[in-house]
Amino acid sequence: MQKLYTGRYVNLQALAQEINSILLQEGWESTVQPMMIGNPQYQDYMIRGLKKGHFHHAEELIVRVTGSPSEFRIIIEEEHIGPLGRELINRRLLKQIDKEINDGLFDLPMQQPTMQPINQQITPTVPSQQPIAPQAPQQIRCPQCGYLNPPGAKFCINCGARLA
Fold first, then answer.
1. Calpha distance 96→32 (Å, rounded)
2. Is 37 helix (H, G, I), strand (E, B) or coil?
3. pTM for the predicted model, two decimal places
4. Is the predicted pLDDT of residue 11 greater than 70, yes or no?
């Protein structure tokens, strides 16, 4: 099962962490593994969930969050999932994550490219006696890892922690 999301600019690491948190809250053993590091345009996270049941029966769930912040997929692979596991996937996991994505919980500020035309001449400016304009909002320091995030970020770009 998979679902494609477009039209938002999402912190995929924070999204993967939230999926992991939901599985942990539901009693699953769960971990998040980044599958591809170094390319900010394409990210890939794998969340592995395992829930042991009666008679050595184990349900296994693999959730992949893969793509770019503006176009990504959530892919769910399941093995030996019973009715309770399926209820978790359909109701709790997919519906809650879908709602949180649409509510903008994982949105990143849109990055605007700052490029100048090649033929434009740059003329030096002379300082004037006019008052200094107010500065742009300051970056937000992550309380968990110390990374400086852009103004308005809701999650740390580096570690995925929620910003105050």
1. 18
2. coil
3. 0.63
4. yes
Q: Would you state the structure tokens that stand for residue 82, as one six-digit string?
A: 């019973």
Question: What distance lies between CA 89 and its chain's CA centroid?
Answer: 19
| CA distances to 45, 47, 75 from 36, in Å | 8, 13, 16
CA 1 vs CA 50, 60, 64, 74, 160: distances in Å:
18, 14, 11, 8, 25
Alpha helices in 64-136 (DSSP H): 83-87, 96-102
The set of long-range contacts for 66-70, using a CB threshold of 8 Å and a minimum separation of 24, is: 66/35, 66/42, 67/12, 67/42, 67/43, 68/41, 68/42, 68/43, 69/9, 69/10, 69/11, 69/12, 69/43, 69/108, 70/6, 70/7, 70/8, 70/9, 70/10
Pairing state between β 148-149 and 2-6:
unpaired
31 beta partners: 48
| pLDDT tens per residue, range 44-70 | 999 998 888 766 678 888 999 999 988
SS3 of 92, please?
helix
> Which amino acid, residue 114?
T
* Bridge partners (DSSP) listed for residue 141: 148
Tokens encoding 30 = 């769960």
